Amino acid sequence: xxxxxxxxxxxxxxxxxxxxxxxxxxxxxxxxxxxxxxxxxxxxxxxxxxxxxxxxxxxxxxxxxxxxxxxxxx
Length: 74
Hints:
Layout: H1 21-24, H2 27-36, H3 42-71
């Protein structure tokens, strides 16, 4: 069977996390979440942790951009 015709495994492909700089910098938190939560609740807990990480990162970027815009002379 060729690679193109192999069925994909059930579940999510979490390898794309490695391409997101916000999430890569928090892999420790994500791994801890993975270990501490039961398998039945794991995906929901990981998604919630990723939402929190991304929200924090977006807010930090927004604050940083706002500070540089206000500091620029008119």
